[in-house]
Amino acid sequence: MTTQVHATPLTTLGDLDQVLTQLESVLLGKRWQIELAVACLLAQGHLLIEDVPGTGKTTLAQALGASLGLPWKRVQFTNDLLPADIVGVSIFNSQTQQFEFREGPVFTSVLLADEINRAPPKAQSALLEAMEERQVSADGQTRALPKDFFVIATQNPTDQLGAYPLPESQLDRFLVGLNLGYPAPEVERALLQSGDKREQIATMNAVANPRQLQQWIQAVQSIHVSDVVLDYIQALLTASRTDSAGLSPRAGLALVKLSRSIAFVKKRDHVLPEDVAAVFPALAGHRLTGQVLSGEQAAKAILAEVKQP
Amino acid sequence: MNIPFFKKKRAAAKLQTDAMNPRSIRALAILILLAQLPHVLHLPLWVSIMGCGVVALKLFEEKLPKLVKKLVLSSAGMTVVAILGAVLIKLHFGYMLGRDPCVALLFILVSAKFAEIRKTSDAVLLMCLACFLLLTQYFYSQSFLSALITLPAVFALGNALAVVRDPRDARPAQQNIQLVVKLLLQGAPLALFLFLLFPRLPGPLWSLPDDATAKTGLSDSMAPGTISSLSLSDAVAFRVDFQNGIPTPAQRYWRGPVLSDFDGRKWQKGERSVDVIPPESVGTTLDYTVTLQPNQQNWLFALDHPTTLPSSNTDDPNQQRVLGRLTGDHQLLSLNKVSSVMQYRQQSSLSSAYRPAFAPTDLMTQTAGVNVKTEAFANKLRKKHRSDTAYANAVLEWFNQEDFHYTLQPSLLGDTPVDEFLFGTKRGFCEHYASAFVVLLRAASIPARVVTGYLGGEMNGDYMIVRQSDAHAWTEAYINGRWQRYDPTAAVAPQRVEQGMAAALPDDEPVPRMARNNANWLKNFQLSMDKFNHQWQRMVVDFNNHSQTELWEKLGFPKPKLWHLTLLVLLISGVWCVFILGLPLRNSGQTKSGVEKLWDKYCAVLNQQGIQRLPDETAHQFVYRAAKQSGSKHDKILQLGLQLIRLRFEPLSKDKADHLNRTLTKQLRRIKYSF
Asked: Between 20 and 30 A from A204 (CA), which of A176, B132, B186, B590?
């Protein structure tokens, strides 16, 4: 079963490079965040971006969908959003005299859930259920979502007014918590000179297709993780557990998965300790403290505590 | 305003970690109850019930009505309990500063502290208090059994420590027990080592204040019935280790209080006589060590007649201290009340007569004039026998010939006990015969007095047990300038001297079990227990400075200086701790694979060259930097490092990995020697 996959990865890597390059052309100076976002996609996880408005969250989602040739949709979360606004609703067709299900925006590949913490918990959990199960239940029927269903959710820093913070259990469903941050001065100058990137995205060509994406996802699973690296991962987990909120075994599994993806993105067939160390803040941050920014600090403190092999 | 709720939750969680959970409470309750257990035997019943009751109350806290819980199990409620306890103890004992009331108070205070426990830090304090309470039971007894009875509490202490240390991690009970057993076993060699070698102080640092506890054993007065009631007790009076020979049964007169004041019915200690220097030893002398059970009196016992003052049980002349004095009537008195087990060395010469330092006073011939018949009989007999010795022997002869009976159950005597005994009932115990004999001698103007003490003793292995049932009274008469011992009981019942009380008494009399001559298994068992306890006392409780010196001599070393010893103790304890603590450390870190050891060696070789890996440096960065700093060896270091990283992280077939491992090991060795 997996023998077929084994032959593919390194030959198709060139295409992944193209994806990264194209993304970098619209999201200037954010190479690491782009790699992490792609790694997250390849690890079949969902991405949570925490940042102030206007730092390129939507641009990243749009560009990712366009480059991979995936359909994408966007839902703006507001405080009056209902679950049906996400999942879809059955309406009565007077011609056929039957109820028809009108699919909601969740039936897509890349879903951008903007300002997810502005919506009340009920709407949040409708999305989060879809993320976890990759299927949606409506009107007593279960409908599967596309194989490459990928959510990029953005949230405002929780100290802003009108925010409903996500509970820890739901934060745990996001593989990566990311902070885009302001661009560096010279990058910002380039951005200001070149103008809005939205038009560029509109004309962007797909440099990969969904079939390739599935191959890459398969290939990531065969990346080698040595015992030494697993020891290191275990040591990190143990170190995080001295405090009351430590990392769960699920987080440990996610760390292995994400380390594999990032090694794949870096064109290696094995995971190095530095891969683990690099993804650790993005993976552990929001799980440790509930916030991406403060969590990164906590995660870095744990990294400093454990010696890299 | 939206406050992120997880912050609140965190804060709550933090508060909870310091609060006590039911598991800790249960573990602590078991510890406290087990620490209280040995005390229940000797504390007043109400103290035990109050102390244990408070613990039980806290233990079943959840089942109590809320109001009771709030009122009683609070700091204020427990303060009331503590004050109430203190007042009741004062009322019960009548005094506060002494062993019994203080232990009782501690008993109640520990319970009260437990009932109002709130935080983990309280638990640690409580465990210290429980240990202290446990130790105080040694004020009462230091026997092997009392050491044994503390063991469950020691175990419970380990358990409580384990539970309180890690309250959230609910290990199954079996694992907890295994942990505690392991910890105790790890501690045992250290405890033994410290017991044997830890420098000991020559004497106790403090002593217990005297308690108003009941006096036991012989008293300083004698009336009909005093000694016979004592004879019904199996309790041990003292134990003796002989250094040079064991006295024959007829020589086992253990001299105690000497009574010379007579009011017609009751014998009492005479006027306070001055202390004397022990007489020169004559004839056979015996050296022995007496281990005296506490009797709350001043009496010390020695074989007739003591020729030294009692001294502490040590060979070191610097440590030798005199523990008692000798009165004019040759009675040994200790300097302090004997309130705990006391050991002293003593020497006696085995003679039945001695020459006193000064002649007896007229008081020694007073008969109180009550027993008129007796005096008349004495005057009649005196006329037949000129010499004092002949007269005394005639009295003994008369005792022997007449129909006198030796019994523990004599008839009751009235106001003229000696008359009634000699010419009426003719049934009596040693005190009757001693009393009558002295009155008969005094009536004939021969100075005489009663000596009480113990006659007999049973060898149990290599030491002798003397029991309360061996209590005896005999007499001394001042004849030809010497105090001569006469035992009138021997004239009536010679077996008493040779074979003990049981042989001398008729068969139907109630003799205490341990005094009976026919051995049964229970007696044998008790004797073996006693032997064991005596060994325990000798080997463990009395292990002192001197025993340590002996131990060193046996090992063939001179005793080291104190600071040498301290260093040695610290060193060995340290090594043991490192050994014990180091083992789990080694085991918990998964054993490093061969490849990792190779990498460690690589790093060690570079470390020797002053190239150290920085904390945030990746393996690759380190290898490149190290190669750069190695100058001429750049390529070798770089290649070896990169290959090692390959070996560590890359997927290699087993054959390839083994091959690479061997090559790299060789390369590393070569590089190491090239430096």
From this structure: A176
- A292 belongs to a structural domain: no
Buried b (16+ CB within 10 A) or exposed e, B260-283: bbbeebbbbbbeebeeeebbebee
pLDDT tens-place string over residues B211-270? 555 566 777 788 777 777 777 777 888 999 998 888 888 889 999 888 888 888 888 887
Give the rounded percent of residues in chain B with a pLDDT score beyond 70. 90
The reported pLDDT for the residue numbered B11 is: 40
Listing DSSP states for B45-101 in one string gives HHHHHHHHHHHHHHHTGGGS-HHHHHHHSSHHHHHHHHHHHHHHHHHHHS-SSSHHH
What are the residues whose beta carbons fall under 8 Å from the beta carbon of A272, sequence distance 6 or more? A229, A263, B618, B619, B620, B645, B649
Alpha-carbon distance A94 to nearest alpha carbon in chain B (angstroms): 46
Number of structural domains (chain A) is: 1
- Find the range with the poorest average confidence among A288-292, B69-73, B203-207, B520-524: B203-207
Choice among B388, B472, B530, B603 that is catalytic: B472
Determine the residue of chain B that is closest to A243 in CA distance.
B14
Q: How far apart are CA B666 and CA B43, in angstroms?
A: 76
pLDDT tens digits along A104-151? 888 888 888 888 888 888 888 888 888 888 888 877 788 888 888 889
Q: Are residues B305 and B391 part of one domain?
A: yes
Q: Which of B4-8, B247-251, B550-554 has the lowest mean pLDDT?
A: B4-8
Residues in B closer than 8 angstroms to A162, CB to CB, are 2
- Asked if the interface predicted TM-score (ipTM) of this complex is over 0.90, the answer is no
Q: Scanning every residue of chain A, which has its alpha carbon at the shortest distance from the alpha carbon of B595?
A: A228
**Residues B375 and B498 occupy one common structural domain:** yes
Share of chain A above pLDDT 70, in %: 93
- How many whole angstroms separate alpha carbon B374 and alpha carbon B378? 6
Name the catalytic one among B211, B430, B470, B530: B430
CB-CB under 8 Å, B651 with A224: yes
A165 and B590 within 8 Å at the Cβ level: the answer is no
Same domain assignment for residues B161 and B260: no
Judge whether residue A44 has pLDDT over 80.
yes
Distance, CA of A202 to CA of A67 (rounded, Å): 11
Residues B137 and B225 in one domain: no
DSSP string, B512-529: -GGG-SS--HHHHHHHHH
Measured CA to CA, the distance from residue A239 to residue B2 in angstroms comes to 32
B380 and B492 both lie in a single domain: yes
What tokens appear for A272 in the block? 């190095």
Whether B205 is in a domain gets the answer no
Domain ranges, residue B312: 221-506+516-521
Using DSSP's 3-state secondary structure scheme, residue B481 falls into coil
pLDDT at position A37 over 80:
yes
Among the listed residues B642, B634, B635, the one whose alpha carbon sits nearest the alpha carbon of residue B660: B642
- Residues of B in Cβ contact (< 8 Å) with A161: 2
Q: pLDDT value at position B336?
A: 81
- Residues of chain B in Cβ contact (below 8 Å) with chain A: 2, 4-6, 10, 13-14, 17, 590, 593, 595-596, 599, 615-620, 645, 648-651
Instruction: Supply B91's token pair.
Output: 């009322």
Active site annotation includes B577: no
Q: Residue A229: its pLDDT value, please?
A: 92
Q: What is the mean pLDDT of chain B?
A: 82
Number of domains in chain B: 3
Whether B487 is catalytic? yes
- Give the count of beta carbons closer than 10 Å to the beta carbon of residue B84: 13
Does residue B538 lie in a domain region? no
Which one has a higher pLDDT value, B339 or B446?
B446
Query: What span, in angstroms and rounded, lies between the C-alpha atoms of A298 and A280?
Result: 11
A118: nearest CA partner in chain B: B2
CATH of the domain at A82: 3.40.50.300
